[in-house]
Write a structure and sequence with these properties.
The protein is an alpha/beta fold. The protein is built from ten helices and ten strands. The chain is globular. It binds N-[3-({4-[(3-aminopropyl)amino]butyl}amino)propyl]acetamide (SP5) and zinc ion (ZN).
Length: 363
């Protein structure tokens, strides 16, 4: 089913460098699989938005220090340099490992209460920053990671300058990346960077609404103790067996001064438009109560019914309705997160942005 959208006027911020990241699959349960976070995701979205008439703007470059606004410099430096170290260490040429993948993790079980150390071996050190085996690094990864962050920052700047809506076509996605660690196909947290850029530009209260099918554990971790950036997410219930497994439960409500500014609304596998939109409406109410002056939308379209990575059953019309609700809340920076069904990806993103445009007009 296709949804009527009309001409899309929301600017699309994009960098072709986002295509340089080729994770080369993911290691899932010990086996390397093809993986679904592929460069073609970005090209099909771009084509759909361009066909709908959207203006495309280049992502502006930013100083590396801007990335330290939500990430530990050690994580940023690790990501910037790990491929070169891996190659120089002979992991490719001598051992046939064509991507960076961790194999030992400094979990509480391993450290047994002792402080961690920084491993001497490159292959030991990777597990200090990467918390799963699905988030591979290859030769062009850093350029793309950086470009995605630049796109999100540029889209936030458009809103800070008075724009009503903008969209950053980020790839790789970001919401699973935390202050000092990465995973879930995410490396740097594009949405968190956008939210922090808005705060820095003088927006007093910001809200992040995350409609990706998975919980954005990284974004939650970054803002968990803060009252000025609300985080709310609707996602498939991790308690029903879904990634990220350890985070995203309803009782995670924020801590200290951030108490009450974090909201998780998990859904049972199989939930479709009605149940999903009820949660989106609940998050929208929360955001009004929070008094947010600008919104960052973590726009994952993997809740789509045909998506291979989630059991939610949301239609393109459902996403358009969500866009309309959120567009009515105030200025919105939409940041691309997940969404893996290549045939329908463009239609879903377009439907959401068209809904946002409609919601903003009715505001
Ligand atoms: C940004 C985002 O949507 N990240 C999603 C990461 C969730 N990946 C979970 C992967 C589970 C393994 N994939 C199963 C493939 C079965 N062949
Ligand atoms: Zn997702």
């Amino acid at each position: 089913m296709s949804v009527e959208v009309g001409e899309l006027r929301i600017p699309v911020v994009w960098s072709p460098d986002c295509l340089l990241h080729e994770p080369g699959g993911e290691v899932w349960l010990g086996l390397r699989e093809t993986g679904t976070e592929v460069p073609e995701r970005a090209t099909v979205i771009l084509r759909a938005l361009q066909d709908a008439g959207a203006p495309v703007l280049p992502a502006r470059g930013h100083d590396i220090a801007e990335l330290y606004s939500v990430h530990h410099p050690d994580l940023v430096r690790h990501l910037a340099g790990i491929w070169a170290e891996w190659e120089a260490g002979g992991y490719v040429s001598e051992h046939g490992r064509d991507r960076v993948v961790p194999y030992v993790f400094p979990t509480a079980a391993m450290l047994a209460g002792r402080p961690g150390r920084v491993p001497a071996a490159v292959h030991g050190r990777v597990g200090l920053y990467c918390y799963d085996t699905m988030t591979l690094v290859g030769p062009g990864s850093w350029e793309a990671i950086r470009a995605a962050a630049d796109a999100a920052l540029t889209a936030a700047e458009l809103i800070a300058a008075g724009g009503q809506a903008s969209y950053a076509l980020c790839r790789p996605p970001g919401h699973h990346a935390g202050p000092d660690g990465y995973g879930g196909s995410c490396y740097l947290n594009n949405a968190a960077l956008a939210a922090q850029a808005l705060r820095k530009a003088g927006v007093g209260r910001v809200a992040i609404i995350d409609i990706d099918a998975h919980h954005g554990n990284g974004t939650q971790a970054i803002f968990y103790g803060r009252p000025d950036v609300y985080y709310g997410s609707v996602h498939v219930d991790p308690g029903a067996g879904w990634f990220p497994h350890y985070m995203g439960f309803a009782d995670e409500r924020g801590s200290g001064p951030g108490a009450g500014a974090n909201r998780n609304l998990p859904l049972a596998p199989g939930a479709g438009d009605d149940r999903w939109l009820e949660k989106v409406a609940q998050l929208s109410e929360d955001v009004r109560r929070h008094g947010a002056e600008a919104i960052v939308l973590s726009l994952g379209v993997d809740a789509a019914s045909d998506d291979p990575e989630s059991p939610l059953q949301v239609t393109a019309a459902g996403y358009r309705a969500a866009g309309e609700l959120i567009g009515g809340l105030g200025p919105v920076v939409a940041v691309q997160e997940g969404g893996y069904d290549l045939p329908s990806l463009g239609e879903y993103v377009l439907a959401t942005l068209a809904g946002m445009q409609l919601g903003a007009a009715a505001d």
